[in-house]
From TrEMBL:
Keywords: Membrane, Transmembrane, Transmembrane helix. It comes from Leifsonia virtsii. The chain crosses the membrane at residues 35-59, 71-102. It comes from the Bacteria. This is DUF4190 domain-containing protein.
Protein backbone atom coordinates (compact mmCIF):
# COMPACT_ATOMS: atom_id res chain seq x y z
CA UNK A 1 0.00 0.00 0.00
CA UNK A 2 1.59 3.23 -1.09
CA UNK A 3 0.71 6.57 0.37
CA UNK A 4 0.33 9.12 -2.40
CA UNK A 5 0.23 12.15 -0.07
CA UNK A 6 2.80 11.49 2.67
CA UNK A 7 3.15 15.07 3.98
CA UNK A 8 -0.63 15.74 4.09
CA UNK A 9 -0.44 18.38 1.41
CA UNK A 10 -3.72 19.60 -0.04
CA UNK A 11 -4.67 17.73 -3.20
CA UNK A 12 -3.43 19.14 -6.48
CA UNK A 13 -6.00 21.06 -8.54
CA UNK A 14 -7.66 19.10 -11.33
CA UNK A 15 -6.59 19.85 -14.86
CA UNK A 16 -9.11 20.46 -17.60
CA UNK A 17 -12.47 22.15 -17.44
CA UNK A 18 -13.17 24.54 -14.54
CA UNK A 19 -15.45 23.31 -11.77
CA UNK A 20 -19.08 24.04 -12.37
CA UNK A 21 -20.95 25.41 -9.36
CA UNK A 22 -23.43 23.03 -7.86
CA UNK A 23 -27.07 23.73 -8.54
CA UNK A 24 -28.67 25.99 -5.98
CA UNK A 25 -31.34 24.28 -3.91
CA UNK A 26 -34.93 25.34 -4.24
CA UNK A 27 -35.64 28.43 -2.15
CA UNK A 28 -37.24 27.65 1.18
CA UNK A 29 -40.97 28.14 1.34
CA UNK A 30 -41.82 31.14 3.48
CA UNK A 31 -43.20 30.03 6.81
CA UNK A 32 -46.85 30.98 7.19
CA UNK A 33 -48.42 32.68 10.15
CA UNK A 34 -49.20 30.38 13.07
CA UNK A 35 -52.97 29.84 13.26
CA UNK A 36 -53.00 29.74 17.07
CA UNK A 37 -51.32 33.16 17.15
CA UNK A 38 -54.23 34.60 15.15
CA UNK A 39 -56.75 32.80 17.37
CA UNK A 40 -54.90 34.13 20.42
CA UNK A 41 -55.29 37.72 19.31
CA UNK A 42 -58.97 37.35 18.40
CA UNK A 43 -59.73 35.23 21.47
CA UNK A 44 -58.16 37.80 23.79
CA UNK A 45 -61.03 40.17 22.99
CA UNK A 46 -63.82 37.59 23.01
CA UNK A 47 -62.74 35.12 25.70
CA UNK A 48 -59.47 36.24 27.32
CA UNK A 49 -58.58 32.92 28.94
CA UNK A 50 -58.67 31.22 25.52
CA UNK A 51 -56.46 34.00 24.15
CA UNK A 52 -53.89 33.45 26.89
CA UNK A 53 -53.85 29.66 26.48
CA UNK A 54 -53.62 29.83 22.68
CA UNK A 55 -50.92 32.50 22.93
CA UNK A 56 -48.67 30.33 25.07
CA UNK A 57 -49.17 27.31 22.80
CA UNK A 58 -48.54 29.45 19.72
CA UNK A 59 -45.27 30.80 21.14
CA UNK A 60 -43.98 27.30 21.80
CA UNK A 61 -44.98 26.18 18.29
CA UNK A 62 -43.37 29.25 16.71
CA UNK A 63 -40.14 28.59 18.58
CA UNK A 64 -40.13 24.97 17.40
CA UNK A 65 -41.22 25.44 13.76
CA UNK A 66 -39.99 28.96 12.92
CA UNK A 67 -43.37 30.17 11.70
CA UNK A 68 -44.40 33.81 11.66
CA UNK A 69 -46.86 35.29 14.13
CA UNK A 70 -44.78 35.80 17.27
CA UNK A 71 -46.02 39.39 17.58
CA UNK A 72 -49.63 38.30 17.24
CA UNK A 73 -49.19 35.69 19.97
CA UNK A 74 -47.53 38.18 22.31
CA UNK A 75 -50.27 40.76 21.63
CA UNK A 76 -52.91 38.12 22.38
CA UNK A 77 -51.15 37.26 25.63
CA UNK A 78 -50.84 40.87 26.76
CA UNK A 79 -54.42 41.78 25.89
CA UNK A 80 -55.74 38.57 27.47
CA UNK A 81 -53.82 39.08 30.72
CA UNK A 82 -54.82 42.76 30.94
CA UNK A 83 -58.47 41.86 30.29
CA UNK A 84 -58.35 39.14 32.98
CA UNK A 85 -56.71 41.58 35.43
CA UNK A 86 -59.48 44.16 34.83
CA UNK A 87 -62.20 41.54 35.34
CA UNK A 88 -60.60 40.33 38.59
CA UNK A 89 -60.17 43.92 39.79
CA UNK A 90 -63.80 44.72 38.92
CA UNK A 91 -65.05 41.67 40.83
CA UNK A 92 -62.97 42.60 43.89
CA UNK A 93 -64.26 46.19 43.83
CA UNK A 94 -67.85 44.96 43.39
CA UNK A 95 -67.50 42.61 46.39
CA UNK A 96 -66.00 45.35 48.54
CA UNK A 97 -68.72 47.81 47.50
CA UNK A 98 -71.41 45.21 48.28
CA UNK A 99 -69.97 44.54 51.74
CA UNK A 100 -69.73 48.26 52.50
CA UNK A 101 -73.28 48.88 51.29
CA UNK A 102 -74.64 45.98 53.35
CA UNK A 103 -72.84 47.00 56.52
CA UNK A 104 -73.76 50.69 56.33
CA UNK A 105 -77.50 50.09 55.96
CA UNK A 106 -79.71 51.95 58.45
CA UNK A 107 -81.44 49.98 61.16
CA UNK A 108 -84.65 51.93 61.59
CA UNK A 109 -87.49 50.03 63.08
CA UNK A 110 -91.06 51.21 62.45
Amino acid sequence: MTDQNPQNYPPAPQQGYPQQPAYAPYPAQPAGTNVLAIISLIGAFVFPLAGVICGHIALSQIKRTGENGRGLAIAGLIIGYVYIAFVVLFVIIAIIAGVIAASSGSSYSY
